Recover the amino acids of this structure.
């Protein structure tokens, strides 16, 4: 069983509520080189600073953080509220010791996907939470936060990471062991290269397990110009996998995999090179175990 982190939420503070600060009647005084007006401006801002400081310290809790369940009760009901979700997500993103999150910077509570199912064990259910986020351009559509969460003893994050796209239809028990698998696809175009991935994973025993995974790479129609000058005849310009999961009966699934390879066969211009590519394709089915 993987190490389970017990999540701790910060207490409510005034700085967590920008609306409280915005309620003060801030007003800019027009700038003029007048001593009395400058003096009035200084006194005005001192009064505002004092007022804000008073509100901040009077609303602040005596402790910075509290364990879940001590001052506020966070359970499987409150975990589905935007306030709690956002605090959990920010804590996960800000953690510096998670190699599975490389450039995710924020999440959007308007794009939340939550489902409860058998993700860790065939005997008990856990929450899967997916949240759309913001990430660097090099991530492509791998800008989603995925978390597997237990609520049996407060909120406990079993696994978290930055992933590509998936939806409810991508969650199935594909190998008939009682634990749900997730099909995740990601793609990006960066510096003249297109990269895509197709993966089937699960979280049996609280760890990420890869059931099936392929990576595709191409420089064809991916932003590079002068391909004829960059690559020589015989170079592989595309190595692509197109995959889909198919039900074959008796609670069994297979991956239908089409593998395409494009080889540079020469050409003076990019149009000539593209039209002269040597293309091979093969198709296979792979049983999911």
């Amino acid at each position: 069983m993987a190490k389970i982190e017990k999540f701790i939420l910060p207490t409510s503070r005034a700085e967590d509520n920008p609306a409280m600060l915005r309620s003060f009647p801030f007003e800019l005084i027009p700038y003029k080189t007048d001593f009395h007006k400058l003096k009035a401006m200084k006194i005005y801002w001192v009064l505002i600073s004092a007022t804000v400081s008073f509100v901040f310290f009077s609303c602040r809790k005596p402790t910075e953080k509290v364990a879940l369940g001590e001052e506020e009760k966070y359970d499987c009901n409150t975990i589905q509220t935007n306030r709690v979700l956002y605090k959990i997500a920010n804590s996960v993103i800000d953690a510096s010791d998670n190699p599975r999150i490389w450039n995710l910077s924020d999440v959007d509570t308007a794009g939340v996907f939550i489902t409860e199912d058998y993700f860790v064990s065939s005997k008990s259910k856990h929450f899967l939470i997916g949240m759309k986020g913001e990430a660097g351009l090099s991530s492509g559509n791998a800008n989603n936060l995925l978390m597997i969460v237990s609520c049996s003893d407060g909120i406990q994050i079993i696994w978290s990471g930055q992933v590509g796209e998936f939806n409810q239809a991508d969650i199935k028990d594909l190998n008939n062991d009682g634990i749900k698998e997730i099909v995740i696809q990601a793609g990006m175009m960066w510096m003249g290269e297109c990269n895509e991935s197709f993966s089937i994973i699960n979280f049996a025993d609280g760890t990420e397990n890869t059931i099936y995974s392929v990576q595709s790479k191409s420089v064809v129609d991916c932003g590079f110009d002068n391909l004829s000058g960059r690559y020589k005849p015989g170079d592989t310009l595309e190595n692509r996998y197109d995959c889909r999961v198919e039900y074959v009966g008796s609670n069994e699934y297979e991956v239908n995999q089409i593998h395409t390879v494009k080889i540079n066969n020469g050409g003076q211009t990019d149009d000539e090179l593209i039209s002269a590519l040597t293309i091979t394709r093969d198709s296979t089915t792979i049983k999911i175990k």
Q: What stands out?
A: The longest strand covers residues 104-117.
